[in-house]
Amino acid sequence: MINIKTGRVAMTHGSGGRATAELIRSIFAKHFSNEWLDQRHDGAVLPPITNPVAVSCDAHVVKPLFFPGGDIGRLAVAGTVNDVSVCGAKPLWLAASFILEEGLPFEVLDRVCASMAATAKEAGVAIVTGDTKVVDRGLADGLYISTAGIGEKITSRTIAGTEAKPGDVVIVTGTMGDHGTAILSEREGMSFGTTIESDAAPLNAVVAAVLEAAPDTHVLRDPTRGGLATTLNEIATESNTGILLDEALIPVKPEVKAACEFLGLDPLYVANEGKLIVICPEAQAEAALAAIRTSPYGRDAAVVGRVTEENAGFVEMTTLMGGRRGVDWLTGEQLPRIC
Amino acid sequence: MINIKTGRVAMTHGSGGRATAELIRSIFAKHFSNEWLDQRHDGAVLPPITNPVAVSCDAHVVKPLFFPGGDIGRLAVAGTVNDVSVCGAKPLWLAASFILEEGLPFEVLDRVCASMAATAKEAGVAIVTGDTKVVDRGLADGLYISTAGIGEKITSRTIAGTEAKPGDVVIVTGTMGDHGTAILSEREGMSFGTTIESDAAPLNAVVAAVLEAAPDTHVLRDPTRGGLATTLNEIATESNTGILLDEALIPVKPEVKAACEFLGLDPLYVANEGKLIVICPEAQAEAALAAIRTSPYGRDAAVVGRVTEENAGFVEMTTLMGGRRGVDWLTGEQLPRIC
């Protein structure tokens, strides 16, 4: 049997034999147990989905595995929950593949799985199937997790970057740049007066509230890698509209601003893992904002700009100094391995 | 732009910015294009699934990336197609997450994606969404691929290890041990007169044919890691029946037998990636066999044993010498990183 406190992952735990079965029983089944996972087949058999289906997937290679405000497990579940949600869907089920490095303490895997289970519970989704592989020492920085999510549409509208319309309002659900700055500060061992926490969080409840309050919402996106700036550039390209931001309205925590200045980063390009961009008609903006603010993850929500007809395909920003400048896509690497 | 012939993956291709977009356009979109992937959202929106849903996922870390009979791309698609199929389902869509090593030649990724696309086309499934991360040089051995598959049930029966019944017949759809032996021979640089080829193949058409010809089929499984012996032990445990194999009836290629003898392996514990175990009532066994043999992947199909009431929870085998011996689960690591 596996001793979680003192044991470590060995190559044999990836062999598919008795040791793999013990690992599944001792850690995965303990944390994730549900009627579908417990079928213990090569896959899970689940009820029909009578609405259109939304599917998304992510690989997670964040370094370090644990950081203020979260860990790779919370990130993996929340990231995929959010990617499914922004299709205008309710996430139902997750599949999780683990790539474990030989020598990984079971205690680390156990904590990561506990965090995944807690985040899945918070989001109301079930982890219904999984897989485990083991690679040689030195080949995976502890562990990587790939998640896939399946959900059902909760609106008959197409919610996509293509749908942004001139006159629409651009809302963000909170402060920008928290996640990437938290990871980098932790990695570099820097402190900026106060610990910067990742915002990693499942946003499916926020999405459901927005779609209820602002049913004509056109676009939902989570500005992860590449940050707000890159995601808005994608939307401007896809919808062939312009987007004009107002720098004064973009919420950024003072400690994140300080850290970014020190690290030479721009918070608009730094990843978020618990924030949404909502683009909706101006007439529904107040209702959307009110709905977002009822969530603990949406208290700092703000209108930060609008969609324009001119400057189609590009993002611009009215700066604090009163000028206007272009806001380009992220180029270069800026922040490797933040998710 | 990306030069596929001479370029290599850099950390910036995982940043989520312009370089990531170029990588997606130049390689992933080129090979995988379909109406859903081309939505280019964080997830794909797909039609409803009115039958019960089957979901499976796998991480693939095979070493080397290319081997006789296949490569990590064919393996990733076929493996997940097969895991969905053995739920008694028709696979519809795949999601694929890539973890790329800094420095990986684009040409390698391009070949892997071409192979994935060809295998997906053969299986009639679409790769509808994906994700790419890049990790530092020295991690990930080139690349890892995680796939998730979604399908719909094509039978109202429960197809699972729990369903095996005394009197049922155990069929394998072809020779045992080809995949694992091919990988290990390639890795060790050994030749056994003839090149041993992996059997990696999508088996959804075989599953559909079996369920049509033998509608009362109780169990479908693909004996991958751990091989025939371990998979049958799982089924014996799950169904609380005994399984009695006849060694003389188990098809093994002579070159695989020779390689296994040389390497100290038992073909019954070596992974297959293009074979099924079919357990069905004796009355439908001939029909199942005939259906399987119409497939190029099923020409060597054979009845290899039967399900018994006695010896519940265990697998036994009548040996070539006429004796009987227990066939245990795989213990130890035997073959690391074969899939």
Explain the overall architecture.
- 2 copies of one chain form a homodimer.
- Chain A is of the alpha+beta class and 339 residues long.
- Helices cover 29% and strands 23% of the residues of chain A.
- Chain A has 2 domains: 11-153, PurM-like, N-terminal domain (60s Ribosomal Protein L30, Chain: A); 161-326, PurM-like C-terminal domain (Phosphoribosyl-aminoimidazole Synthetase, Chain A, domain 2, Alpha-Beta Complex).
- Chain A has helices at residues 18-32, 72-85, 106-123, 178-188, 204-213, 227-239, 254-263, 285-293, and strands at 44-46, 53-60, 66-67, 70-71, 89-101, 126-135, 143-153, 169-172, 219-221, 242-246, 277-280, 302-308, 315-318, 324-326.
- In chain A, the strands form 3 sheets. In chain A, strands 9-11-8-12-10-13-14 form a 7-stranded mixed sheet. A 4-stranded mixed sheet of chain A has the order 2-7-5-6.
- The model of chain A has no long low-confidence stretch (mean pLDDT 95).
- At the A-B interface, helix 1, strand 1, strand 2, helix 2 and strand 5 of A face helix 1, strand 1, strand 2, helix 2 and strand 5 of B.
- Chains A, B: One of its GO terms (biological process) is protein maturation.
Brief overview, please?
Two copies of one chain form a homodimer. By secondary structure, chain A is an alpha+beta fold.
The succession of helices and strands of chain A, N to C, reads HEEEEHEHEEEHHEHEHEHEEE
Uncertain runs of chain A with pLDDT below 50, 5 residues or more? none
Q: Which structural class do you get from the secondary structure elements of chain A?
A: alpha+beta
Please estimate the helix content of chain A: 25-40%
Oligomer: homodimer
Q: What name does CATH use for the topology of the largest domain in chain A? A: Phosphoribosyl-aminoimidazole Synthetase, Chain A, domain 2
Radius of gyration of chain A: 21 Å
* The level-1 CATH class of the largest domain in chain A: Alpha Beta
The name of the CATH superfamily of the largest domain in chain A reads PurM-like C-terminal domain
Number of strands of chain A: 14
Q: Which strand order do you get reading across the main beta sheet of chain A? A: 9-11-8-12-10-13-14
Integer count of domains of chain A: 2
Largest sheet report of chain A: 7 strands, mixed
- Count of DSSP H/I helices of chain A: 8
- Chain pair sharing the greatest interface: A-B, 90 and 90 residues
Query: In whole angstroms, how far apart are the ends of chain A?
Result: 33 Å
CATH architecture of the largest domain in chain A: Alpha-Beta Complex
Chain-averaged pLDDT of chain A: 95
Shape of chain A: globular
* Residues in β-strands, percent of chain A: 15-25%
GO biological process, one term (chains A, B): protein maturation
Domain PurM-like N-terminal (chains A, B): 42-151
InterPro entries (chains A, B): HypE, PurM-like_C_dom, PurM-like_C_sf, PurM-like_N, PurM-like_N_sf
Domain PurM-like C-terminal (chains A, B): 165-315
